[in-house]
Amino acid sequence: MHVQEWLETVPAVAVYALVGLVIGLESLGIPLPGEIILVSSALLASQHGEIDPVVLGASATAGAIIGDSIGYAIGRKGGRPLLAWLGNKFPKHFSEGHIATAERSFEKWGMWAVFFGRFVALLRIFAGPLAGVLRMPYWKFLIANVLGGIVWAGGTTAVIYYVGIVAESWLKRFSWLGLVAAVLVGLTSMLLIKRKAKKANPNLEATGAPTP
Predict the structure, then answer these.
(1) Average pLDDT, whole number, for the chain?
(2) Which residue pairs from 53-58 have beta carbons closer than 8 angstroms and sit at least 24 positions apart in sequence?
């Protein structure tokens, strides 16, 4: 079943909780499709009045900030042995190459790596734990974490929601063609945001591939 079709079958409060939980776990360091869940939920909110986009955005933002903060605490306490353990559990996401590349980005860019890391799927998983392992001062991490969470989660919700509203007339006239158009416009918007984030930190571009 498609993510959006499944979300249509559950109550609004469950959608808020699911979005916050999945994004929180992803930010904590567990590889989950947080962005897919958020985009699908925001598009669903534009088509169904039961889901409040403000509450949805707040749930996503809270999950992102809280998850990253827990990940930071775990990383600070677990240290480098934690990265080795994650590498054994999730070799595809926490390989030595991925960790080395992300670590270089953090050492060079600091707070900006946490902020812009929100817009890069793999670094979004690394941000909290790695910032803790590298013992980034918590106040710096918190500022970047909160601002990044608000911009990414709130911005994604707002963009996809309004794209869905604009496309509503298309959905009524052209059925699945309108839905495809809405999804494509939404994804294009997200890609543009990610491109700007990667330009601000060129090293983040390499995070998605292991170091040779």
Answers:
(1) 76
(2) 53/157, 53/158, 53/161, 55/16, 56/15, 56/16, 56/19, 56/157, 56/161, 57/153, 57/154, 57/157, 57/158, 58/154
Check if the beta carbon of residue 153 is closer than 8 Å to that of residue 38. Answer: yes
- What pLDDT does 7 receive? 66
The identity of residue 19, as a single letter, is V
Confirm if 105 and 202 have CB atoms less than 8 A apart.
Answer: no
For range 199-212, the mean pLDDT: 46
State how far the Cα of 35 lies from the Cα of 97, in Å rounded to an integer.
Answer: 24
H/E element holding 101?
helix 96-109
Q: What are phi and psi of 69, to 5 degrees?
A: -65, -40
Cβ neighbours for 184, distance < 8 A, ≥ 6 positions apart:
none
Structure tokens at 102: 């992300």
Distance from C-alpha of 148 to C-alpha of 154, rounded to nearest angstrom? 10
Q: Which two tokens stand for residue 68?
A: 């990253």
* Predicted confidence band of residue 196 (pLDDT cuts 50, 70, 90): low
Residue 148 structure tokens: 């990044």
Tokens 């890609």 identify what position?
Answer: 191
